[in-house]
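testing teh design pipeline on a random one, pls ignore if ur not involved
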């Protein structure tokens, strides 16, 4: 078999195709064969040569998207911000990256996949913790932060934001989720890290449920479509002589009337 002279290019092609499909169809609806079909000549074996599973591809896509739009690198050399302001700005930039957020959410529920959970924790420890620690220590030096636990908080923050706040891992209502945010803000404030900016304005899209006199039609703000028929997949596990069969039904919510969606501004 001829050797691939450009394995890095092959990996990038696989990740490009997977990222596009994950964003368009969703992670669960995308199969390895779907990815192969987008690669023009590559075989499924070539994909498995670089990635052991679809979960590993998702992990690599998420890492690459973060590094391509790394919010910590965007703020670390800014001289107009202190450590606390850099930390707030990095979090704001990360939250505004909707594509990366979509891929992150699609990786869940990770509670069904211990391997993906372990990889997520390791990725956070390896990538995010050093950045958090860098900014926390910078804030201590310039006086914008006063915490005795920069290392410990740097290890804790990725776990709280990537796991504890996710409803697919810890189910919660909107009120309970808001209470979690309040708790996290209060805890960090007591630890000398006032992460929530009391003077900052936040925006949130809201849907107008009542009729709007300025809207002539009655098209709803959101329409839910059934994306496809029941999707059945089978995975053979020869070691335990078992075939695992899953059947899923998929729906998608589409913004069908922008006139019924407004933007609410508020302070935390």
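output:
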């Amino acid at each position: 078999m001829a050797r691939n002279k450009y394995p890095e290019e092959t990996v990038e092609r696989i990740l490009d195709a997977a990222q596009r499909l994950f964003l368009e169809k969703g992670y669960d609806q995308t199969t390895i064969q779907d990815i192969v079909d987008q690669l023009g000549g590559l075989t499924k074996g070539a994909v498995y040569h670089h990635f052991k599973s679809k979960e590993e591809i998702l992990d690599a896509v998420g890492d690459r998207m973060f590094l391509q739009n790394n919010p910590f690198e965007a703020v670390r050399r800014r001289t107009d911000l202190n450590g606390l302001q850099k930390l707030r700005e990095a979090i704001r930039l990360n939250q505004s990256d909707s594509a990366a957020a979509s891929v992150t959410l699609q990786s869940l529920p990770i509670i069904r996949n211990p391997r993906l959970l372990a990889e997520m924790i390791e990725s956070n420890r390896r990538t995010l913790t050093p950045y958090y620690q860098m900014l926390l220590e910078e804030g201590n030096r310039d006086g914008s932060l006063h915490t005795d636990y920069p290392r410990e908080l740097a290890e804790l923050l990725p776990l709280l934001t990537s796991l504890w706040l996710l409803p697919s891992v810890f189910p919660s209502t909107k009120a309970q989720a808001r209470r979690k945010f309040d708790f996290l803000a209060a805890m960090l404030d007591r630890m000398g890290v006032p992460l929530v900016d009391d003077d900052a304005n936040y925006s949130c899209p809201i849907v107008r449920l009542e009729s709007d006199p300025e809207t002539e039609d009655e098209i709803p703000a959101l329409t839910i479509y059934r994306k496809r028929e029941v999707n059945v997949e089978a995975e053979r596990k020869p070691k335990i002589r078992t075939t695992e069969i899953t059947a899923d039904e998929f729906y998608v919510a589409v913004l069908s009337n922008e006139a019924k969606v407004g933007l609410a501004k508020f302070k935390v």
